[in-house]
């Protein structure tokens, strides 16, 4: 089989409905993505029924758009890849049903892609990061470390034990009265703040495990903001920007330290940061600096590949296609 | 019945003992502010239910809305934090249990009051200080079953 197969990728695990046509696992021929963030912003988050309804309304138009942008139609496609886990069941079902229906109608192989692994692949997709590398996937729903042995072969070595990093940003933003989504809001507020103003804990920084915990950080913010932290009662008078900058610094420190340690323990010198939190500029700045000191290289996909997208789904699907993997048309939510 | 726990570990331990007394189709509603320890409590419930959480730890379902944990008694862990309008919840709940009879635990359950069965086990977690929490089992038929068992075990305080 030649290596430049064309795969249609479909993504609908949470906020975004997306479709993409990708050749050879790397080359984006057509791409379409509708974010429901405006819809959710009014509600302070993802609302399942809204997400599900919105996915249904636009997914076929999205697929059509991606195919037209690629200046092609179903006859040139070699397979359809769909993210079938993990995520919001009602949302996944929309993309999955569309993918199965099209695979059946067009007589194409169906490929089942893990959404989080596709994030890990996204760095390779854009930068052709050489394997093996360490992938940190940090988003609203996930914070995981993977050993990327080769494209399509990922071994999880650490994950959050409670809140995801993006969720911590969202909840901190709510506690600070900042808008949704919380990550960009905190990042912006932090620009005017002092990252050393509030002394937040660095959860599990010194624990030997490669797991994360961000739930305590949220509680710590709550008490410091209310002035009920015994050691620092004067904090509530500080501007929100100082809280935002200090909170962001604590999360960045933990993500950076654990990623570096994971890389060292596994003799890797390449680190890729993927997922929505990889858009955070402070994280990029600190990790780049620390990697430089250690002689490591680090990679961040462009923002449109960090957030949920279908390009990475088609890309990872392509590696499965080359390996001869196929999903059954009975494929269910993973 | 109210307990005072002095750390997340104590909260988890109390929940573990309650989890060991749960039966399939029990619905536990967790009520408490951000950072109260609702997810921590559900982690304890899972241990009490005999669920192996080493591969699939009980983490916050805020983003995903529902997480499913297999075990001797499966656990369906919901989070209604992002559900502002209860009308939207029914659809999700219906399809997700995949025919399995298990325990349902719902964080921010008070937001979806009209979708809850009449007899739920309501656990209210209140902040006392940064580490300590007052945990109350609100009265109810199923709650009193648990309360009686805990008392029989001479186990009414942490």
Can you walk through the features of this model?
The complex is a heterodimer of chains A (334) and B (158). Chain A is α/β, with parallel strands linked by helices. Chain A is built from 11 helices and 10 strands. Chain A has 2 domains: 6-119 and 307-323, ATPase, nucleotide binding domain (Nucleotidyltransferase, domain 5); 129-302, Nucleotidyltransferase, domain 5 (2-Layer Sandwich), CATH 3.30.420.40. In chain A, strands 3-2-1-4-5 form a 5-stranded mixed sheet, with helices on both faces. In chain A, a hairpin with a 4-residue loop joins β1 (6-11) and β2. Chain A is globular and about 65 Å long. The model of chain A has no long low-confidence stretch (mean pLDDT 91). Chain B is α/β, with parallel strands linked by helices. Chain B has one domain (2-155): Rossmann fold (3-Layer(aba) Sandwich). Chain B has 4 helices and 7 strands, in the order βαβαββαβββα. Chain B is 27% helix and 22% strand. At the A-B interface, α2, α5 and α7 of A face α2 and α3 of B.
Briefly summarize what is shown.
Chain A contains 11 helices and 10 strands.
């Amino acid at each position: 089989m030649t290596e430049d197969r064309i795969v249609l990728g479909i993504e609908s695990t949470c906020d975004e409905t997306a479709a993409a046509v990708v050749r050879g696992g790397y080359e984006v021929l057509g791409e379409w993505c509708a974010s429901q963030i405006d819809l959710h912003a009014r509600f302070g988050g993802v609302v399942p029924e809204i997400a599900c309804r919105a996915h249904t309304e636009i997914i076929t138009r999205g697929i059509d758009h991606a195919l037209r942008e690629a200046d092609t139609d179903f006859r040139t496609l070699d397979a359809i890849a769909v993210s079938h886990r993990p995520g919001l069941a009602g949302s996944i079902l929309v993309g999955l049903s569309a993918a199965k229906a099209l695979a059946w109608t067009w007589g194409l192989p169906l490929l089942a892609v893990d959404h989080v692994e596709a994030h890990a692949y996204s760095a390779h997709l854009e930068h052709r990061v050489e394997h093996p590398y360490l992938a940190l996937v940090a988003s609203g729903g996930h914070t995981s470390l993977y050993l990327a042995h080769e494209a399509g072969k990922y071994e999880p070595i650490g994950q959050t034990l409670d809140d995801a990093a993006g969720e911590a940003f969202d909840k901190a933003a709510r506690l600070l009265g900042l808008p949704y989504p919380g990550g960009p809001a905190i990042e912006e507020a932090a620009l005017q703040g002092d990252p050393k103003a509030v002394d937040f804990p660095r959860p599990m920084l010194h624990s030997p495990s490669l797991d994360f915990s961000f739930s305590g950080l949220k509680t710590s913010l709550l008490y410091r903001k209310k002035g009920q932290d015994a050691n620092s009662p004067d904090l509530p008078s500080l501007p929100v920007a100082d809280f935002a900058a200090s909170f962001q610094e604590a999360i960045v420190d933990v993500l950076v330290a654990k990623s570096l340690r994971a890389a060292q323990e596994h003799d890797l010198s390449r680190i890729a940061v993927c997922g929505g939190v990889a858009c955070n500029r402070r994280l990029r700045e600190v990790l780049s600096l620390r990697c430089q000191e250690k002689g490591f290289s680090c990679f961040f996909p462009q923002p449109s590949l960090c957030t949920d997208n279908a390009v990475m789904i088609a890309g990872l699907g392509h590696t499965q296609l080359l390996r001869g993997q196929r999903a059954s048309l009975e494929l269910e939510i993973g | 019945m109210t307990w005072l726990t002095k750390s997340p570990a104590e909260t988890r331990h109390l929940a573990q003992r309650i989890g060991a007394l749960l039966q399939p189709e029990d619905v536990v509603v967790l009520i408490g502010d951000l950072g109260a320890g609702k997810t921590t409590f559900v982690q304890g419930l899972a241990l009490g239910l005999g669920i192996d959480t080493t591969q699939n730890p009980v983490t916050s379902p805020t983003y995903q809305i529902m997480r499913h944990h297999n075990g001797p008694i499966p656990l369906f862990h919901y989070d209604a934090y992002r559900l502002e309008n209860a009308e939207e919840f029914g659809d999700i709940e219906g399809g997700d249990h995949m025919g399995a009879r298990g325990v349902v635990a719902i964080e921010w359950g008070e937001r979806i009051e009209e979708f809850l069965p009449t007899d739920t086990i309501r656990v209210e977690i209140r902040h006392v200080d940064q580490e300590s929490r007052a945990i109350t089992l609100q009265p109810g038929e199923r709650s009193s079953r648990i309360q009686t068992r805990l008392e029989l075990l001479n186990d009414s305080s942490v």
